[in-house]
Design goal:
alpha+beta, globular, 7-stranded mixed β-sheet
């Protein structure tokens, strides 16, 4: 009887330990950060925020044979040179394997980043995700979290997750930054669209919740990363993936000429590439700004810019870290500047 009771209790405990379905939000510990009592860096009058998909930024350990540690070192140094050209204050990176890769990347900068974070996402099988999301920042972030989608369940469960960080801008306002990497276009189109839209739905809902908690302090929001969608191209003109952000956010690339907004260039096959992998240029690396950033909030956002280099467009099978190829994506960034004309709203009336 006691043996059966112990088995029953063990089974109950096992069931209770299983993850519950739904969105999972976890706080992230920094890979690198100054001591808690270190002086907090001042907030500049211009904050540059950038996104750069580094294309399978893995450390060369237990990777495919051609991805050696030496290739990783070359990849990291070339990526650091492009990032340093933009010199962002806040940088979000999709497709990052682990903290080791970030530490080495950070060492390549003349002025390394003080705060480094990486998500710890999992696949449905329970294995660690190899394509994580990362944050490098010179401003001190708070409430750095990952939004995990793996337990949402169903065929439309989004891939990966999102990384969120909040910044106190020192003037009574806050900035929320979300790093996203949405489902690719491989596979069934309706499923891909559903996965992307559901992921953005959860990101937008999280932003609403955080803004409410910050009230009455104004909160600006940037959502940026690889969405795998460019609504200004014919292939995605009717794609509903980005609809959860419509109305509340401004898609800052929207309407710009393709020459300016290209963040994923056409890669030709050359003599040894794949003719089936030739796609038109697109702006998959989108940047969405809350409306107060594009109107009369405490900060204003600039039009996005792309550093269009680091891609081997002559051979679409060249791997990152080889022959000068850094990524199939380009780095994109925006600048936030203080709004000198901003007038804070009056405080709410006292409750009787």
């Amino acid at each position: 009887f006691y043996a059966l009771l112990l088995v029953a209790v063990a089974g109950l405990l096992w069931l209770l330990a299983q993850p519950r379905p739904g969105l999972r939000i976890d706080s992230l510990r920094p890979v690198l950060a100054p001591a808690d009592d270190a002086p907090r860096p001042a907030v500049p009058d211009r904050i540059r925020v950038a996104t750069y998909n580094l294309e399978h930024f893995t450390d060369g350990r237990r990777d495919e044979p051609e991805r050696t540690p030496e290739v990783f070192v070359t990849h990291a140094r070339a990526a650091a040179a492009i990032i340093a050209e933009a010199d962002p204050d806040v940088l979000v990176l999709p497709e990052i394997e682990n903290g080791r890769t970030l530490e080495f990347l950070n060492e390549q900068f003349e002025r390394p980043y003080d705060y480094v974070y990486i998500s710890k996402l999992r696949q449905p099988s329970g294995e660690n995700e190899r394509l994580n999301l990362a944050l490098l920042s010179r401003l001190r972030p708070r409430n750095v979290r990952q939004l995990g989608f793996v337990q949402l369940g169903g065929k439309s469960r989004p891939t990966r997750g999102a990384l969120a960080a909040e910044f106190d801008l020192g003037d009574g306002s806050r900035l929320l930054v979300y790093d996203v990497h949405l489902k690719s276009n491989y596979g069934e189109m309706p499923r891909n669209q559903a996965q992307r839209a559901i992921a953005l739905h959860h990101v937008a809902a999280d932003a609403v919740s955080e803004k409410l908690q910050n009230d009455p302090d104004p909160t600006s929001v940037l959502i940026l990363g690889d969405t795998n969608v460019d609504p200004d191209t014919e292939a995605f003109a009717d794609d509903p993936s980005l609809e959860p952000l419509a109305g509340s956010y401004v898609d800052l690339w929207r309407g710009r000429p393709i020459e300016e907004r290209t963040t994923i260039p056409t890669r030709l096959p050359g003599e040894t590439g794949d003719p089936l992998l030739v796609f038109p240029p697109a702006a998959f690396d989108r940047i969405f700004a809350s409306k107060n950033l594009a109107a009369n909030g405490p900060w204003r956002v600039s039009p996005p810019q792309a550093i269009q280099k680091g891609t081997d467009t002559a051979n679409n099978l060249t791997q990152p870290g080889v022959n000068g190829h850094v990524s199939d994506h380009h780095l994109a960034y925006v600048d936030l500047t203080r709004n000198p004309d901003y007038v804070p709203p009056p405080p709410p009336p006292a409750q009787p």
